[in-house]
Fold these 3 entries.
Entry 1:
Amino acid sequence: MTNNMMTIGTLAKIADMHVETIRYYQRRGLVAVPAKPYGGIRRYDETALARLHFIRSAQWLGFSLDEISELLELEDGTHCDEARALAEQKLKDVRQKIASLKQMEFTLDNLVKRCRCSEDPQQCPIIHSLHGKLGLPARRVEHGVQEESQ
Amino acid sequence: MTNNMMTIGTLAKIADMHVETIRYYQRRGLVAVPAKPYGGIRRYDETALARLHFIRSAQWLGFSLDEISELLELEDGTHCDEARALAEQKLKDVRQKIASLKQMEFTLDNLVKRCRCSEDPQQCPIIHSLHGKLGLPARRVEHGVQEESQ
DNA sequence: GTTGAGTCTGTAGTCAGGTACGGAAGTAAG
DNA sequence: CTTACTTCCGTACCTGACTACAGACTCAAC
């Protein structure tokens, strides 16, 4: 079944992905489009499957598809230092995220505990707290929002 | 400056948000649209500002705008148990995320360390590992992707 | 030889959380 | 009174990672 020369549908099944996802990766240049025999159907081999595994592993580590493109350019293994730089940056990002999620956890946990103990249903500590500052950081910087505001 | 009866621009400045963002919240029903004096300009007061603070605090705790809508319906403080349920669910989510980020951290940290020590630049352990399984879980479930695959 | 499933191609839609823009009308300063 | 900035309103666009669908074609089974 995992023989070389399978159709995209078989490839998708083995890789546990939708066909459309593979095509999408092809459009983004992450996966090669094999030559099509005249009036026929494209066939995929093990290297295509390996590519999909690579992509999924990297995604699981938090790399975006753009970053995975970069990684794939280093795939021959001769650019170890660049690959390491990418991984280090990602490690930094991951630690950052963990830190802020822990802050959230702490705050939420406090709220829930205080709420559980509150006897006065008229003043819910959760709702109440949301009106305060909660010690939240400067500004959310996500979705590429720039910091400058004229 | 933080007087009542400010324009949307002033409100935006104080809340450190873009005007467009406030309008967007209005379209989503998160922020009230004050009545417009005939042929005039709408004015906002402290309660609008409080609303924006509420939204931002809740966002910081990881609530989506939809969830914030729900929270806002409980704003009178008489639905403490519902608010607590939402907060508890969110706490669970946050802990889940922390757990999987820690997995990522562990894996990335290992990769980076092994890479640092590798003397053979022909075989970068990072690139190499991405071809293996990395012990990644079943399937990414994000963006509302369903688990079923025909 | 027909049926039904799979493939190919291109384009469009989804979700979240905004951001941008165009044109008309109002407003503040000089 | 003019100039320059805001506001208002609607609509369109953005990112990221897909997902869906239409219409033509190909392929394998019966």
Entry 2:
Amino acid sequence: MSTFTLAEDRMKCGNCPIRHRAVCARCETDELAVLERIKYYRDFAPGQAIVWAGDEMDFVASVVDGVATLSHTMEDGRRQMVGLLLPSDFLGRPGRAAAPYDVVATSPVTLCCFRREPFEDLLASTPPINRRLLEMTLDELDAAREWMLILGRKTAREKIASLLAIVARRDASLRLTKLDGPLVFALPLTREAMADYLGLTLETVSRQISALKRDGLIRIQGSRQITVPDFQRLMAEAGDDNDGGLIS
Amino acid sequence: MSTFTLAEDRMKCGNCPIRHRAVCARCETDELAVLERIKYYRDFAPGQAIVWAGDEMDFVASVVDGVATLSHTMEDGRRQMVGLLLPSDFLGRPGRAAAPYDVVATSPVTLCCFRREPFEDLLASTPPINRRLLEMTLDELDAAREWMLILGRKTAREKIASLLAIVARRDASLRLTKLDGPLVFALPLTREAMADYLGLTLETVSRQISALKRDGLIRIQGSRQITVPDFQRLMAEAGDDNDGGLIS
DNA sequence: GGCGCTCCTTGATCGACATCAAATACAAGG
DNA sequence: CCTTGTATTTGATGTCGATCAAGGAGCGCC
């Protein structure tokens, strides 16, 4: 089960700008110190559910560390991932109690949680948080729409290339690397999770990854460690005209 | 070309709550009267582009009347619709100049536009607008995620049923009809637009609509006028467990 | 009426991806 | 070392929707 940590320790949120931009943004305004009084930490093991669709959610949170997924499940078991939460992403919706989809940790996850009601009060009285949240939500909406193009119109190969490009880009931005040298990163997802992300089966994912490897677009160490020798070439394979491509 | 109307006339926005909830929400606060001073109307003919991807957008707007679509286009012509704008929906993103996708009118459209910069100033100084926008954006995000499930995991038949259910529901809510009697509504989309919405070809759309007709789930007058005798049965066909299903 | 146009329908064929099935890799634990 | 279990790869076959192609319906216009 998950660990609760009532947090006086500001430690984990100390390195704010990248790791925890959502709410520890007292970089931006002082009122946010109030958040400190209603926050607590929770840890989740890989594979563990954070909330199930339909559950009541009495908190909102930001991801401090780890990777979690949002996904819809149909009665017959078909599943579609609709969001990928990486460190600094926000979880939950102010003003709504019931979770609309499953949230599952895919790696050890640490959340910084805020009880929903006090958070909403704060939201009402503190415009900067509101602005922040609006901005983040708009980014997520853009990402979702990019994703819709991937789901609706791209081939299996392009889908895989797109996903790898998205993760590579995001990883590079987290560690402040340039995109011109060879990129090495760990896929935070199983083949099955990738399939759920892309609207494919896990066999197709595996085959297409093998194909990209065969064609020299990527190299692989141990099925999760990816090396991209030439990011531009991968992007071309993804069929992207512009260099958009966010996630979350 | 489009018509500009510098608007002292508050007429069109008068019937606010449903038709124009985005910005004429002086129902909510008085400051919004300021909006009156920076707004103007624009009309577009069916098929006309409102903005192209990459264009500079010096305004944000809310849809007063008509239907417009947002869509991504790949260089080779593949197209994916990523948003459907109906009356009361909002267009544009404060804080961003370049449009990320094409916006096209599919029926005669009237926009209520606000010059972007003064609108952004207003946004900064007027929390209620911010809250409103956040809420609307969150709704859109939910809709986008519902849509992702449709694109990634549903069969052609389920996709069509889902789309019809979404439009039927939205239409019913606009005219305050219940969902239990037979529903009659006009599809605001060509078969091609439906295909772009659902990640299908127009031939498949046509075939599946014929199949739903054959199976008695819908009736059709003249290819655009749809009758749904039993909404629940259609929903079942769409594979939806819950009764979520928004758009925009 | 007849022409041109766009939108829609229907048929025949093909191919990308799903499905079914089996084998391999690798880690944890006895 | 062997066992067990999960994640992954690979192969054989099937199917849904795409593609290619033709024809019909509605409508404005000469």
Entry 3:
Amino acid sequence: MGRPRGFDEATVVRSAAELFSTRSYDGISMDDLVTHLGVHRNSLYKTFGSKRGLYLVALRWSLRHHIAPLVDRVAAAGDLAGALRVALGEPATEAGLNLLLMAAVERAPVDPEVADELAPVLAAFDQAARTAAGRHPDRDEQDDDGVALALTATILGLRLRARAGTPGTTIDQAGAALAHRLTRHT
Amino acid sequence: MGRPRGFDEATVVRSAAELFSTRSYDGISMDDLVTHLGVHRNSLYKTFGSKRGLYLVALRWSLRHHIAPLVDRVAAAGDLAGALRVALGEPATEAGLNLLLMAAVERAPVDPEVADELAPVLAAFDQAARTAAGRHPDRDEQDDDGVALALTATILGLRLRARAGTPGTTIDQAGAALAHRLTRHT
DNA sequence: ATTAGTCAAGAACGTTCGTTCCTAAACTCC
DNA sequence: GGAGTTTAGGAACGAACGTTCTTGACTAAT
């Protein structure tokens, strides 16, 4: 009963995640959200409670629909070089990684709930990289774990470089070279 | 002539850089700066023009006094493993790297002047990593450049992980393992 | 001693922020 | 076809933002 809502909640969440991936949390106003999402203020507050509530929902959506599949593809990559190619190759995941980047840098330190959302995702990232790396009996196990952690860091770092303005060709070069090197020595 | 100023400009800039390294640009208000720096509003505006002006001066100060020396130590490290240890080992540079991190992620995309400040610094970082890696005649030159780029990305990525809440021991493990691996294959 | 110039202190400015209130419209159920 | 309920729309709220203005304190040169 009651008037039916004139918007699709899933669509709104997806659009919000996209918007939050372009600028910082504080850099996006409620007016921006209202304008960009085409949904009125009142509806947003009714549905998500607050700006932070909408942000958290959008973040969780992005982690689930963008990052989680990426993690799966990394795990299935076979080797570290493939994992790197998978993580950096797909432009569709750029928005998800950007949102993850900003959540980690500027939100997690001041919002414990954001930190709690990120921790398992980053751990899963590490685990996936670990899986992609495979076991090598002649190598120290801790060593492999550490390299997997470093791979996650490298993916995020390269994405950060791209966001900071480093040309895409340079990023691609770094990714390709690292993949090449990792492959040769694995 | 005139009343002498009751604060040291260099000290203020250093304190501002430290404060800006803890939270996002928008997350720090002018009141926060006035309180933390112990300098009055009017003096800050007289000296730096605006909040953004103070931020830019603080950013440049940090790049020059924290990042530039770090880049030099990376270049002098001798090999990639040493470069990684140098970059992650010193807690004194954490503030500088955090500020660099947030500047790259959230300011550079919306403030061209910040992007212009960061670009040469990141390029210098790459160059230093390139120097630390050294030349290996049996290896492709582009390959070495790419690995140097990746090292910069890894340093930033690991620093990001630390900021997002990943335990320090985990970060250290990743750094040590990567250093170990790089050393063995270099 | 007076004057001119700079700085400190704090009130106050107009805007913008996130949020809430109020009313009209649109639907289901009885 | 009212009654009841939920949404849409827009105005309006207090608070906080970056910035400016006004006043009084202080110092150096005249």
